[in-house]
User: Fold this.
Amino acid sequence: MDHFNLETLAVSFSIAYVIFAAFEKKVCWWFGLAGSLIYIFIFYDVNLYMESLLSVYYAFMAVCGLFVWGKNENKNHKRPIIKLDTRTHFLILLLIITLTAISGYILTEASDAYMPYLDSFTTWSSVIATILVVRKVLENWIYWISIDTISIYIYLERDLNQTVFLYFIYLLIAITGFLIWNKNFGYQSRKSTC
Assistant:
């Protein structure tokens, strides 16, 4: 299978993943796993090494997501959406900036990585945001909106046009996902106070 067809397949699986995630459907993790496995090779091929490693991580987290989101499935209710406080988000951002600086510097000095600091930023942000998705933290979608916007620029620069399209769709779904999860969080909060 050539590079174009592989990218088409990865984009299709990835779009299915994020749509199902926005609607809190456990099946999203199967699509996420398939898309991630393909993207490991695609990103490595275009010297986006952090993105390739990130795809390995995504594959691992898809397996985790299957287990975490499936815990309450037999009890006939979904895992609840939660919110984090401002202090926790500040610490998350500090961690992302620190990890970005370290890995960006290492990639600059020791590899032919393309846009090492931006690549590192989107990678570490995605690592954290994926954990937030698995834990069903409402604000995960805000992180994804930022990540997707920056990723569109990176992929445009590497002529990964289908992946640019994917991240544009991701951006739209992240906005939609935030609205859906926010509504569900409000409903869930009202229900728990009754």
Notes: The chain has one domain: 3-70+84-193.
